[in-house]
Design a protein that fits this description.
Length: about 70
């Protein structure tokens, strides 16, 4: 997905996760009138997983692509 929109994997993961959480919130509120399934752990995961991927790629992407023989 990141390649299709020409953005970094970390940024794309954050956007995808925010979209999923938004859909969950809307469905939860429409169907039950209350918020279900979204807690502090979900919000932290949404933020931290994408940022962790971005930091990892920042420091290792060039070396990993060279080792894999992938040309960008």
């Amino acid at each position: 997905m990141a390649d299709c929109i020409h953005r970094s994997v970390g940024f794309t993961k954050n956007c995808f996760d925010v979209l999923n959480v938004t859909i969950t919130i809307v469905i939860s509120l429409v169907c039950t009138g209350r918020l279900h399934g979204i807690g502090i752990g979900t919000v932290l995961a949404v933020i931290l997983v994408g940022r962790t991927i971005a930091v990892f790629n920042h420091f290792t992407k060039e070396k990993l692509t060279a080792l894999a023989g992938i040309k960008e």
